[in-house]
From TrEMBL:
The keyword Membrane applies. The chain crosses the membrane at residues 79-96, 127-147, 159-181, 187-204, 224-245. This is DUF3667 domain-containing protein. It comes from Muriicola jejuensis. The keyword Cell inner membrane does not apply. It comes from the Bacteria.
Length: 258
C-alpha cells in the first residue's frame, strides 16, 4: 500500500511511514478512534505538549534556550503552543460574554456615558485577541533591552515571548473561567492581579535563562516593568486611535454626563 500523506509505497506492517514519518491510519474515523487520537495527541504524559507545559512552568529556560539553540522535536513548537493558548482564550471570551454583566464593566468607566461604555465593552471583546498578540513584541522588546546576558537576537526574544505569553494564557485559563462562572463581578479585579502576575512570570522566565545576581535582577526588573507599562499604554492609545479612525468612537462620546 501507499502512504496516504506522501504516496510512498510501504509495507502493511508499518506503523509510521519511513519517508515522511506520518502515522499509518487504517481504521475509519469513529468516535472511539477520534477520542483516542485526541487524548493520545494532547494528554499523553510522553506527549510534547505536556512536556512543554510542565517545563515552561518549572524550567522555562530549558524549553526556550533549547529552541533557540536548534532543538525542534523535543518540545512543542511556539506557534502550536500559541495556537492552543488562543483557542482557550476564545473560550474564555465566549464565557465572559455570557456571564459578565456590562454594568460591571461600566462601573470602571467613571463618568463615561452609558452608550460610550457599551461601545468600549463591545470593542474590547472584538480586539482582545489582537491585544494579546501585541503584548508579545512589546514584552519581547522590553526583555531584549533589559535581560539579554546570552545576547539573543530580537527575533529569538520574540520566540521566547511567544512561549512565555502562550504559557501564561494557558495557565490562567482555569482561574479565569472559574471566576467568570462563580463570581463574574470579580473578574475585572482579578484581571489586574493577573496582569501583574503575568509580568512576574515574564521576569521569572528571564531570570531562569540569564541568571543575574540580586542587585542586577532588581535593576533590570524595574527597567523591564517600566518599559512594559509604557508598551501597555501605547497599545491602549493605539486601540483608541483605531476606534476613532473606524468611527466606532467619536469625540462627543466622551462628553461629560448631564
Amino acid at each position: 500500500m501507499n502512504c496516504k500523506n506522501c504516496q510512498t509505497p510501504q509495507r502493511t506492517d508499518y506503523k509510521y511511514c519511513p519517508a515522511c514519518g506520518a502515522k499509518v491510519v487504517v481504521h475509519r474515523l469513529t468516535f472511539r478512534n477520534l477520542t483516542y487520537d485526541i487524548t493520545e495527541r494532547y494528554f499523553n504524559l510522553d506527549n510534547t505538549f505536556i512536556q512543554t507545559l510542565v517545563q515552561l512552568l518549572l524550567h522555562p529556560e530549558q524549553v526556550i534556550d533549547a529552541y533557540v539553540q536548534g532543538v525542534r522535536r523535543k518540545y512543542l513548537n511556539p506557534i502550536s503552543h500559541l495556537g492552543i493558548a488562543l483557542t482557550l482564550s476564545g473560550i474564555s471570551i465566549f464565557i465572559m460574554q455570557k456571564t459578565l454583566d456590562p454594568e460591571v464593566f461600566m462601573a470602571y468607566g467613571g463618568q463615561l456615558p452609558k452608550e460610550t461604555a457599551v461601545k468600549l465593552y463591545d470593542a474590547i471583546y472584538d480586539f482582545s485577541t489582537l491585544f494579546f498578540i501585541l503584548y508579545i513584541p512589546v514584552f519581547a522588546l522590553a526583555g531584549y533591552l533589559t535581560f539579554n546576558r546570552k545576547n539573543y537576537l530580537l527575533s529569538e526574544y520574540l520566540i521566547a515571548y511567544i512561549y512565555i505569553m502562550a504559557q501564561w494564557s494557558i495557565l490562567s485559563f482555569p482561574f479565569t473561567v472559574t471566576t467568570l462562572i462563580i463570581s463574574a463581578e470579580s473578574y475585572l479585579t482579578l484581571s489586574w492581579i493577573m496582569l501583574f502576575a503575568m509580568v512576574a512570570y515574564c521576569i521569572f522566565s528571564m531570570q531562569r535563562i540569564h541568571r543575574y545576581k540580586a542587585g542586577g535582577l532588581v535593576l533590570r526588573t524595574s527597567l523591564f516593568f517600566a518599559l512594559a507599562v509604557i508598551g501597555y499604554f501605547m497599545i491602549v492609545i493605539l486601540f483608541y486611535i483605531v476606534m476613532f479612525l473606524t468611527g466606532t468612537l467619536e469625540i462627543q462620546d466622551f462628553a461629560p454626563k448631564q
